[in-house]
Structure formats: structure tokens, C-alpha cells
Amino acid sequence: MKRTLVLTTYILLIISSLQAQGTRKFTESQKQAFEKQFIDKSRSISTLQSAFVQTKTSTMVSQSAVSKGNMYYRNPSMLIWEYTSPSKSSLIVDGRSTRLLDENGNIVGNKNVSKQLGSLIINMINGNSIVDNKLFTTEIFEIANNQILVVLIPQQRRLKDFYSTIKIKVDRNTLIATEISMDEKSGDNTVVSFTNIQLNKEIPTAKFKIK
Questions:
Q1: What's the CA angle centered on 128, arms 1 and 189, to 5 degrees?
Q2: Do residues 166 and 150 make contact, with C-beta atoms less than 8 angstroms apart?
Q3: What's the average model confidence in pLDDT over 136-149?
Q4: What is the mean predicted confidence (pLDDT) over 101-116?
Q5: Which SS3 state, helix, strand or coil, does residue 83 take?
Q6: Which residues, in sequence order, are CB contacts of 145 under 8 Å at separation 6+?
Q7: Peptide bond preceding 76 in cis form (omega within 30 of 0)
């Protein structure tokens, strides 16, 4: 009960802060219309690739950790999340299996954690994270710079144990996510910003093969 009250208070503070900044919360009908548009757009994407910058802020470390890399997605369930600096590693989802590989191609990390992370990223791309209320409940806002902010509140047990909220900024014109911000229960925060986004450009299936 205490954790529920803390989480509810945290979400209300986020919403109050957004409203104070002049944002406009979607009505239920506007929310449903946006969700349909987002899903329709997601289903039209055969491939998606972009560069990204990931900034991790920790309560335990004073300086943020910045990583860079590239993301490749092939509909419906193939993904490469490739870090190029400061060190190289790749999260690969080939549709059935998920692996986190180091720069030498060796499997590292926890298999279940890697699978959960891969599924989370794919669900954000294909729209399942927005419409599947077993995963999240959502609040949607119109914000500055012609963007839509989707606030996801985890409902699935594993997600709830790790994340407080996940916020996605979506370009209003293209309906493509430009930034994802993940607030962890620990107080840590990870922000991923996407650039050089390319849609429906051929990506060979072999690129997603786990060797």
C-alpha cells in the first residue's frame, strides 16, 4: 500500500509539473485517436534505423555516463541495439532469441534481463507499450516543439519492480519517437535521444543473425 501511494504521488507530481509548463493533456477521445494513428504508423514501418545517444544519470555517481550507438529494427520482432562508444556491445533480437554480446561476440549479461530489455524496446517501436494495458497505463500530452509526450506507468510486475515511469517524446508530424526517458525505482534515469532516423530502408535479415 505504501509503495502504491508513493508511486501515485510521483505520477501526480509529473502530471502537475507538465501542466505547469503549459502542456495540454489529451482528452480520452484524443488519446484514443492518437493511439490509433500511432499504431497505424507503426504497422507501416518495415524497417527503422537511427543513431542514438544514451545518457545515464545515477544517484550513486556524480557524473552522467554517455554512450553512443546505432539501432536497427525489422518488423515485427528483429532488433539490434548496438553500442559503439565508449565500448562496443550489441543487444540482438532475431525474432526468437535474445543475446547481449561483447565486442568479441561473446554472450554476456543475464539472459532474462536481455530478453526483457529487447522486448521493451520492440514494444515501444511497434506501439504495444502504448495500447497494451497489461504492460502500462498511459497519459498523453501535447508539449512544445510540435511534440507529443506519452507517459507510461508500468503495470506488469517485472516492469513495476524496475521502472517508475517511462516517457516517450513523439514527433507530431512523423509519429516517430525522438526520445525515451526511463525513471528507475532506484532513482536512476536513462535518456535515449534518436537522430538520423531512417524508415523502410533495406536491412539484410542476416544482420540480425545471432552467431
A1: 55
A2: no
A3: 92
A4: 85
A5: strand
A6: none
A7: yes
Nearest by Cα to 148 from 132, 131, 167, 124: 167
What Rg do the C-alpha atoms of the chain give, in angstroms?
17
Average pLDDT value for residue range 16-29: 71
pLDDT at residue 11, as a whole number: 55
Which of 1, 13, 2 has its CA nearest to residue 165? 13
Which residue shows C-alpha cell 504492460? Answer: 135
Q: Which of 194, 193, 170 is nearest to 48 (CA)?
A: 194
At 88, give phi and psi (nearest 5°): -100, 135
Give the bridge partners for 98, in sequence order: 93
Phi, psi of 52 (to 5 degrees): -145, 155
Residue 108 is predicted with a pLDDT of 87
pTM of the predicted protein model: 0.85
Give, for 171, the enclosing helix (H) or strand (E). Answer: strand 163-171
Lateral strand order in the sheet of 24-25? 24-25, 136-143, 147-154, 163-171, 177-184, 189-199, 47-57, 65-74, 78-85, 89-94, 98-102, 107-108
> 59 to each of 18, 31, 70, 134, 185, how far by Cα in Å?
23, 34, 27, 30, 11
